[in-house]
Design goal:
The complex is a heterotrimer of chains A (494), B (190) and C (148). Chain A has 14 helices and no strands. Chain A is mostly helical and 494 residues long. Chain B has 190 residues and is an alpha+beta fold. Chain B folds into 2 domains: 35 residues; 102 residues, Cupredoxins -  blue copper proteins (Immunoglobulin-like), CATH 2.60.40.420. In chain B, the strands form 2 sheets. A 5-stranded mixed beta sheet of chain B has the order 3-9-8-5-6, with no helix packed on it. A 4-stranded mixed beta sheet of chain B has the order 2-1-4-7, with no helix packed on it. In chain B, a hairpin with a 5-residue loop joins strand 5 and strand 6. The radius of gyration of chain B is 24 Å and the shape is elongated. Chain C is built from 7 helices and no strands. The relative contact order of chain C is 0.20. Classes of the chains: A mainly alpha (494), B alpha+beta (190), C mainly alpha (148). At the A-B interface, helix 2, helix 7, helix 9, helix 10 and helix 11 of A face helix 1, helix 2, strand 5, strand 6 and strand 7 of B. The structure holds protoporphyrin IX containing FE and copper (II) ion (2 copies). One copper (II) ion binds next to loops of chain B. The site of one copper (II) ion (CU) has 7 residues of chain B, from loops.
Chain lengths: 494, 190, 148
């Protein structure tokens, strides 16, 4: 499909007076600010579970909802912005669209936060029907406001994906965006240009992201319809499937957005290029097809679920790990192996993040195995594994990106190394307590846990404190560098 | 502390072993950057290794998948082998389970689990506190769940799905007794 | 442009008209919800293609932010129109039912048009999005649990 009679495509320029660099920097600052605040909320929850502070059950569940929903929305913004930074030039993306989508997501987050903090809305970030509507402790308006907030988060993400996919179609076409031209010679372009790995990742994220946004919109509109007209029927099993389709996939996509960043950043630190080949085309097409089918692993313990979905969900979850384990992570290790790697804050965090992704992934796969799931489902094993690859993976990639973005050429000063160590020690200890709780059968999402939960939570709180201190120091160092280098980089700002 | 036995032991061992391998590999790759070599020199070997690793990993997954197919806890997979001697209805609601307070050990039981309000989850904890199995309780649907209590004792039924402000307090004891004769036929439909 | 490239909008337009006025022909029947949702998604798809074709025939400047706003509102509207309460209300009256179908057609048409005006190819993507939403609604939007 050629662009027909449109002639050369004329796009709006930086008319809003927002330079891309400034927008990325601003988003990073907002995102890190939110992570810091929500991390403190997480620490307070741990302290409450460890009997160090006292919270009423309703307050605890409200904070849990705030932390979960807020963190997911924040890492969506952070990873999307980081990936966008590299895609902008490759795909001629417009900064205005990014402004719109970040605004929509942050706006949605604020609405949700108001519902939670003022109204006390607290059914957990997966807001499983029918708890938002019956048998709860919060006012009706807060339920509606929360769902409007989620709608805005979904809209912001949809705008991001629509623009991304439209740009990919414009510059490469969907098939070549997945680099399928490396497999089918018939697709090859005259100029021989092949999509770089970071664009391949973007193609997968844009399509699956659109699917997720579509599901999220239907989900939220169904819930809002039920909110406005309680007679509007909702099938609890259907809505649970849809909820996890949306929730699982959007959280999962932050990892794929991160992969796009890794493809772009690691060559910078290793001095080795990262090329596209057939394997990338195959593996990203696999991810594209199977990631949207992994959600049923959240419903293994719903025994009425159709058997084929249970089995297919397990198979898809397994298959979706192959591209990550065999191509992206292995490829990253191969790129680093015996390279002249410059060890900086950025490269250190990227390597650590890959490790967290893999270790958390192993724990996730164990949990996604049906005969193990019946002793792990809804225990602390679940936050254990997803904190390993969100906090110990995605978040590390984002810190690594921020440090790359702020200028990472000078070696890490000793005092910053101290904060690095504090961060990692705190994180490992904090995660270990989650795993221990999971193995001991302590349930997740409990204001008051059975033994040995409180003991583990008490130790976990100390580690969380260490983690937050390390994180604060590192973010200050990165921010300092960014301000120092910002002026000298203004030249490449447009 | 709750003893780490059964499935939990397998899980912990599996995860620790695999994670240790991962950490060792990463440490090895990181330390290799002290003796750099041109990319062209390490890449061919790397690609061969990737091919091997791909096949190995793929085979592992297929094997794991096939094994799990035979061990899923669903009625359609267990129905024929574990003929239930007893059918028990469980109605979960905020914040308790309406169900018998005494049940026999070593008797295959078919639990029909549903909820009268929001989503709950019926988790079965052994007298030592080990989580042995669970099933979600969803309004409008009935989950069929087979379970055999291994030994008599005071079990705990605990809710494992966030179900409102009282969620942490939604647990109750279940007395499991030694049936007079394990073979004695029990009335269906308690 | 080949003859087919020039003529397909006419064929698509005819197809849309056929589905839109289908209730007038078949009378007051209500198909199963699943089929009905799919039927409405089909209208969105075809009308969206028409909107895109029209937008492409008028080269303009891209990036109008109001187009973006319209695009989002129309996407949400497409799901709101799928509320089964609306269906059950109108199914008995073929004329109202055809009007509802016309609503879907207009939503799809303007959505595709505005999105394509906003950015080249965005019309295609927008149409993909609403069709995905339509298919997802078909999986159970507004259906009570089976035994109720
Ligand atoms: C910064 C340090 C962090 C601390 C101290 C922390 C702490 C916690 C705690 C105590 C819980 C409740 C676990 C339970 O009992 O169920 C939790 C849940 C959760 N956390 Fe974190 N967390 C941190 C970082 C993160 C990050 C970076 C993310 C994601 C990017 C994240 C995402 C979540 C989610 C999605 C939940 C589940 C909420 C729910 O169950 O509804 N957390 N966290
Ligand atoms: Cu409960
Ligand atoms: Cu109709």
């Amino acid at each position: 499909m050629a662009l027909g009679n449109q002639g050369p495509v004329e796009l709006y320029g930086a008319e809003m007076g927002v330079t891309p660099r400034w927008m990325v920097a601003l988003s990073l600052c907002i995102g890190f600010g939110l992570i810091f605040f929500l991390g403190m909320v997480g620490g307070v929850m741990k302290a409450a579970q460890g009997d160090i502070v006292h919270l009423s059950a309703a307050t605890f569940y409200a904070l849990l909802t705030l932390h979960g929903a807020g963190m997911i929305a924040t890492v969506v913004v952070l990873t999307a912005v980081a990936h966008w930074h590299f895609l902008r030039r490759l795909l001629n993306l417009r900064v205005e669209v990014l402004v719109f989508s970040v605004l929509a997501i942050v706006w949605g987050l604020l609405a949700a936060a108001a519902a939670i903090l003022v109204g006390g809305f607290g059914p957990g970030w997966t807001f499983l029907y029918p708890l938002p509507f019956i048998g709860n402790t919060w006012p009706v308006w807060s339920t509606g406001l929360f769902f409007f907030g989620v709608l805005f988060v979904g809209i912001g993400f949809a705008i991001f994906c629509i623009d991304l996919l439209a740009s990919i179609i414009r510059e490469y076409g969907i098939l070549n965006g997945l680099a399928l031209d490396t497999i089918f010679p018939g697709l090859r372009r005259a100029d021989g240009k092949v999509a770089p790995p970071t664009v391949i990742a973007a193609t997968m994220v844009a399509i699956d992201g659109l699917l997720t946004a579509a599901a999220g919109t239907v989900l939220v509109i169904a819930l809002l319809a039920h909110w406005a007209m309680p007679a509007f029927p909702v099938d609890p099993l259907w809505i649970k499937n849809l909820t996890y389709f949306f929730g699982h996939t959007i959280a999962n996509l932050t990892i794929y957005l991160s992969a796009g960043v890794i493809y772009a950043v690691l060559p910078h630190y290793t001095g080795r290029p990262w090329h596209t080949n057939k394997i990338y085309a195959i593996s990203w097409t696999t991810s594209l097809l199977f990631v949207p089918w992994a959600w049923p692993h959240h419903l293994y313990m719903d025994f009425v679920q159709a058997p084929w979905l249970q089995i297919f969900g397990e198979a898809s979850t397994y298959i979706a790990t192959i591209p990550a384990a065999v191509v992206t992570i292995f490829g990253a290790l191969l790129l680093v192996y015996r390279s002249d790697m410059r060890w900086r804050i950025g490269s250190t965090f990227f390597m650590a993040g890959l490790l967290g992704w893999l270790v958390g992934g192993v724990a996730a796969m164990i949990d996604a195995t049906i005969p193990f799931n019946d002793v792990l489902h809804n225990t602390l094993w679940v936050p254990a594994h997803f904190h390993t690859y969100l906090l110990g993976g995605v978040f590390l990639f984002v810190i690594g990106f921020a440090s790359y973005f702020a200028g990472d050429d000078a070696p890490t000063p000793p005092w910053a190394k101290v904060f690095e160590w504090l961060f990692f020690i705190g994180m490992i200890g904090f995660l270990a307590m989650f795993y221990a709780g999971g193995i001991e059968g302590v349930p997740r999402r409990e204001a008051v846990q059975p033994a040995p939960g409180p003991l583990l939570a008490m130790i976990g709180t100390v580690f969380a404190g260490v983690l937050l201190v390390g994180m604060t120091g590192l973010l200050i160092e990165i921010f300092r560098r960014g301000r120092r280098n910002g002026a000298s980089r203004e030249s490449d700002a447009t | 502390m709750v003893p780490i036995v059964g499935k939990q032991l397998v899980i912990l061992a599996l995860w620790l072993a695999l994670s240790t391998i991962v950490v060792v590999v990463f440490a090895w790759v990181v330390s290799s950057t002290r003796r750099p070599a041109p990319q062209g020199e390490v890449q061919p070997g790397g690609y061969r290794l990737r091919r091997l690793w791909g096949w190995f990993y793929g085979t592992l997954l297929v094997a794991a998948f096939l094994v799990t197919l035979w061990t899923v806890p669903y009625a359609w997979a267990q129905g024929s082998s574990a003929k239930p001697a007893l059918v028990v209805h469980v109605y979960a609601h905020q914040f308790a389970f309406t169900m018998p307070q005494k049940l026999p050990a070593q008797t295959p039981i078919e639990f029909l689990v549903t909820s009268l309000d929001v989503n709950h989850d019926m988790g079965i904890y052994s007298p030592q506190g080990v989580l042995l199995g669970q099933v979600q309780a969803m309004p409008d649907y009935t989950n069929v769940f087979f379970f055999t209590f291994p030994a008599p004792g005071r079990y705990i039924i605990r809710c494992l799905e966030l179900c409102g402000a009282g969620h942490s307090y939604m647990f109750q004891p279940l007395q499991v007794y030694q049936p007079a004769s394990a073979a004695a036929p029990l009335a269906r439909g308690v | 442009m080949t003859a087919i490239e020039r003529r397909w909008p006419i064929l698509v337009g005819l197809a849309v008209a056929l589905i839109v006025f289908d209730p007038l022909l078949t009378g007051p029947v209500s198909p199963p919800l699943l089929v009905h949702h799919i039927e409405h998604s089909l209208i969105l798809l075809l009308a969206g293609l028409l909107g895109i074709a029209y937008a492409r025939s008028h080269p303009r400047r891209y990036g109008d932010p109001t187009a973006l706003l319209g695009v989002i509102l129309l996407a949400s509207l497409s799901v709101l129109l799928m509320l089964p309460d609306i269906y059950s209300g109108v199914d008995a009256y073929p004329i109202l039912h055809a009007l509802l179908h016309l609503g879907f057609a207009l939503t799809g048409y303007f959505g595709g048009y505005l999105a394509e005006r906003y950015s080249p190819r965005a019309g295609t993507v927008w149409t993909m999005l609403v069709v995905m939403m339509g298919v997802i609604t078909a999986s159970g939007f507004g259906s009570p649990p089976p035994h109720l």
